[in-house]
Amino acid sequence: MALIWDIETDKSMEVDEFFAHLEDNIVLGDIDSLAACAEPLRALANNRTFVLDAYHKELKEFWAGSRVNAHLAQSIQIGRSKQFYVRVNIWLPIAKGVRTEAFQKRLYSYDLPHDHNFSFLTVGYFGGGYTTDIYEYDHGQCIGFVDEVANCSFLGRYQLHPGRVMLYRQGKDIHVQYSPEEVSVSVNLMGRDLDLGWDQQYILDVKNDRLIGGAGDLVSNRLYVIEAAGYFGDEETIGLLHDLAIGYTCDKTKARAIQSLDTLSPAEGERAREKASARVRELADLPIITGNYARSYSGA
Prior knowledge:
Elements lengths: L2 E4 L8 H11 L5 H5 L2 H8 L4 H15 L10 E6 L3 E8 L6 H11 L11 E7 L4 E6 L16 E7 L4 E5 L4 E6 L5 E8 L10 E4 L4 E5 L3 H15 L2 H13 L3 H14 L1 H10 L2 H7 L8 H4 L4
Antiparallel strand pairs: 1-7, 2-3, 3-9, 4-7, 4-9, 5-6, 5-8, 10-11
């Protein structure tokens, strides 16, 4: 399951020192090297100034009209390299009011079971921290269609309190985050996996053990664009979809292109099928997961 450490240490690291450690020790795609950074991340969390410094920098950029943070409103990036980046997340308790509650659940992905197509470390920094239910499954055994059985197992509920470090494993750990009782802050160390464009993240219905949607990853969004093109395309669109269906590297992309061809031009869809592998033809007969389910999620 996800690895959890409650590390007691008085050591404190400066941001530059922490990044220097990462440069010397992180190996892209090696989860053991990421796990070995749990103690340094915990030491960084003892630094009580760098998070506020990051917020001050954001406020100054707002004032100067030069803010370039392209992440979610809840996140501020501390720094990045070719192999990793570090960000701060703020977690607010859900405010009262139907519209506000729905918006905040979407913003923070509260109550929304999801996996990750990358591994990452997180540490509680401020406040009581959110609670999270953790499940385990094998992402690699899933094809990626709506209502597919996930075969996930519930492993327990945990709280990301200050000082606790958790490691979520790519394609293994599912978690459901719940609104904290008080304003909380976490710090994440994220690996910049070069394969993100080839692996989906899923939203799950853990009660019924099913995949139900995409989590706004690069693959799910790519498949959505191809799906959307099938509703209003023209002759040029048909040509582009045919090229994707025959020549693209990703089998899901090929299959989704065939499905869009079926909508625009059934004859072209059939011709693409005849040239496709058995695997692609199988996928083209399934309701492939696309898009960002979280954006339209209103809570349950």
